[in-house]
Design goal:
This protein is α/β, with parallel strands linked by helices. The protein is built from 12 helices and 14 strands. It has 2 domains: about 120 residues, Methylthiotransferase, N-terminal domain (Rossmann fold, 3-Layer(aba) Sandwich); about 200 residues, tm_1862 like domain (pyruvate-formate lyase- activating enzyme). The model has no long low-confidence stretch (mean pLDDT about 95).
Length: about 350
């Protein structure tokens, strides 16, 4: 069977897609880049904010049209939207032959076989309690670079975020497995590893006797053929002095850190349940800037969170101007189902 893949959303989703590609390839299927030549298409969806949900539904509908005037016979949705709204998708979108949750994508070859026999299939279960989202991959990143998912799920419980309800609580992959995978990737010619997770700074907090992200970075830094390590998605609350010292010491970690701060106002941070205040955040940034030479900081902030006042916004604006982040993303708060923030008073209108 010729199988095409569409991976929406974040790099963490892409890793899951790469694992599914390896599974179907091992099962004897052929991966095609042109959807028009595919017998089946697997769409790995994003679904934790409204624009992402809309994009995923639109992609399913548009791809489903290929059944009418192309070779496409089967259409499968996986990922966050499937995990979050699996039954609704299965019941309301007849163009879908299969719906697979985030803990069941390893069964993609079996589900494709069921579908090929004429059976519509839905497989959505609660997220795993341990890290199971791993396996051989077909890399889709530029030559020489690869993502490495070190955690899945999140236990931070930020008031605005639906991820814990979709992906479950934090679960870290074992240090030994991560080191082994990086060694295998470098043997394939990979020179740069990009560490990803919902919160990479929390790596190892759920593992017994773990040395956390500092220990993992120290071990990865010792891999001979690896040249660069890039860090993404570091929650400020988990950036310890020990981690900062390691970041400053190891030579393969690039001086480029992605630290989503979301806000600086104490009252907004508290309502967001970010688990730190503005003084702590300012101290972390100062330590990073003073200890890591030529540091590039990337961040995202959220405006319009429930209860945000004009003075909160001005405080955020002034802080951004003062820190001079090299990369900045600004997002408008959007209420999400089953989150604390959606039920908070003083919702802020877009106007």
């Amino acid at each position: 069977m010729n199988i095409g893949f569409i991976s929406l959303g974040c790099s963490k989703n892409r890793v899951d897609t790469e694992i599914m590609m390896a599974i179907v390839k091992k099962a004897g299927h052929r991966i095609v880049s042109s959807l028009e030549k595919a017998d089946a298409v697997v769409i790995n969806t994003c679904g934790f904010i409204e624009p992402a949900k809309e994009e995923a539904v639109k992609t399913i509908i548009e791809t489903g049209k290929l059944k009418e005037h192309g070779s496409l016979k089967y259409l499968v949705a996986t990922g966050c939207l499937s995990q979050r709204y699996g039954k609704e998708l299965f019941d309301e979108m007849p163009e879908l032959d299969g719906v697979i949750g985030i803990s069941c994508f390893h069964d993609i070859d079996k589900i494709l076989s069921e579908i090929a026999q004429g059976k519509r299939s839905i497989r959505v279960t609660p997220p795993s309690k341990v890290f199971t989202e791993k396996g051989s991959r077909v890399l889709t990143t530029p030559l020489g670079s690869a993502y490495l998912k070190i955690t899945e799920g999140c236990s931070n419980r930020c008031a605005y975020c639906a991820i814990p309800g979709i992906r479950g609580s934090l679960r870290s992959r074992s240090e030994d497995e991560l080191v082994q995978e990086v060694e295998e990737l470098t043997n394939q010619g990979v020179k740069e590893i990009v560490l990803i997770g919902q919160d990479t700074a929390a790596y190892g907090h759920d593992l017994a006797n773990s040395s956390g992200l500092p220990g993992l970075l120290t071990r990865l830094n010792g891999i001979d053929n690896l040249e660069w390590i890039r860090l993404m998605y570091l929650h400020p609350a988990h950036i310890s002095d020990e981690l900062i010292n390691v970041l400053a010491r190891v030579n393969k970690v690039l001086p480029y850190l992605d630290i989503p701060i979301q806000h600086i106002s104490n009252q907004v941070l508290e309502r967001m349940n970010r688990k730190h205040d503005s003084s702590y955040l300012k101290a972390v940034i100062y330590k990073l800037r003073s200890q890591i030479e030529n540091l590039v900081l990337r961040t995202t902030v959220m405006v319009g969170f429930p209860g945000e006042k004009e003075n909160d916004f001005e405080e955020l604006y002034n802080f951004i101007s003062e820190v001079e982040f090299e990369w900045l993303g600004v997002f408008e708060y959007v209420p999400e189902d089953n989150t604390v923030a959606a039920n908070l008073p003083d919702q802020v209108t877009s106007e």
